Amino acid sequence: MSKPKGFIRRTKQRELILEVLKGTTCHPTADWVYEKVREELPSISLGTVYRNLRSLVEAGEVLELTFGSSFSRFDGNPENHYHFACEECGQVSDIDFPLQEELEKRVEESNRLKVHTHRLEFYGICQECLNKKE
Amino acid sequence: MSKPKGFIRRTKQRELILEVLKGTTCHPTADWVYEKVREELPSISLGTVYRNLRSLVEAGEVLELTFGSSFSRFDGNPENHYHFACEECGQVSDIDFPLQEELEKRVEESNRLKVHTHRLEFYGICQECLNKKE
DNA sequence: GTAATTGCAAATAATTTGCTGGGTG
DNA sequence: CACCCAGCAAATTATTTGCAATTAC
User: Fold this and answer.
1) Mean pLDDT score, A32-55
2) How far apart are CA B45 and CA B30, in angstroms?
3) Strand C lies under 7 A from the Cβ of residue A4
């Protein structure tokens, strides 16, 4: 019991991946990281990059942001509103929360860009799953 | 030039898809919509569902939310912070904006659930792309 | 030594696309 | 009757996984 359960061994590959991530302000895709690390360590495989990114995210050392189109969910209400995603059962539900229009204005003021819309969502455990747990 | 450019023809398939979406509070995946519409119209194909969802989103009649894992971007900073995604060039950048911790509390209070974290991002045109346009 | 980790390649999973015939405006 | 759109299947894209060899601790 000396090693914590999710013990992560330190390898050249993992160190390089983390170094690349810490050393860039762009928010790279897995593939970009792969190409970058390959400059140092040409033999690394894409699978290794994916596996390490996953474990780094699980270890809380790296943030993952999902964009793009996969695993989309659709909502018949086209007005902007906010969502809650349960980390336990995967359900996504609308939440009753007023639209924060002023956030967009504040972002436009402090950063020089044009905001069209924003997306806000919360992650946690839904009521049903909370009930099941006790 | 009488018809608007992105003219959308009305078909049985599209009507059914929209009806299914408007008639549910869950936030279905494309596949769920497919199964549901198939109860009415067994001959519909999954490709048609995808194509229609896409055009409905483009027409602004439906919201698309992306969850899950595809097209992830990674961030070496594991602290929660907010992002801006440029709809023109696709770049994702950090924005300088204070963390709104109190949002989580407010959601927990008005809805009975446990919030672990939240995600807030803004979409629009970045400064560089704005400059290019004029 | 042993268990985590690697590289490689094949497998998945969600979504998109080419084609050809059919239905809408 | 032109052209958008359907169905079908094959193609893409991002990501995951099985396996045998390797390496960190």
Assistant:
1) 95
2) 11
3) no
